[in-house]
Write a structure and sequence with these properties.
This protein is an alpha+beta fold and 106 residues long. Strands 1-3-2 form a 3-stranded antiparallel sheet, covered by helices on one side.
Length: 106
């Protein structure tokens, strides 16, 4: 997938370049890896290349958490929460803080 950020300033360019450089150093099974960072020659448009993910992760999580069997549902919720906790713990071990934890980013 290609994310484009148009009409960027030098500050925005520097912010996304730093984010790219930081995220490419992280190696965790639950962290999306950026594949490439590039910009237009005037640095007004920024592009981040990421893997394409099929399906809807949030819908899958919702489906796992809405099973009628309480035991299975509780186990699924626990697995999801442990996975999230491990990612956040990994980020903290790298002296990083995720400032945008929300369902859409899981």
């Amino acid at each position: 997938a290609l994310k484009e950020f148009g009409n960027s300033s030098k500050e925005i360019y520097d912010k996304y370049l730093k984010e790219y450089e930081t995220l490419t150093k992280l190696k965790h099974e639950h962290i999306v890896q950026y594949l490439s960072f590039f910009s237009s020659s005037d640095k007004k448009s920024i592009y981040l290349l990421m893997p394409i993910f099929t399906g809807d992760g949030l819908k899958a999580v919702d489906k796992l958490c809405n099973i009628s069997d309480n035991t299975t549902r509780n186990i699924n919720i626990l697995i999801i929460l442990i996975s999230i906790g491990r990612v956040i713990g990994y980020l903290h071990s790298q002296d990083m803080v995720h400032r945008d934890v929300k369902p859409r980013n899981i």
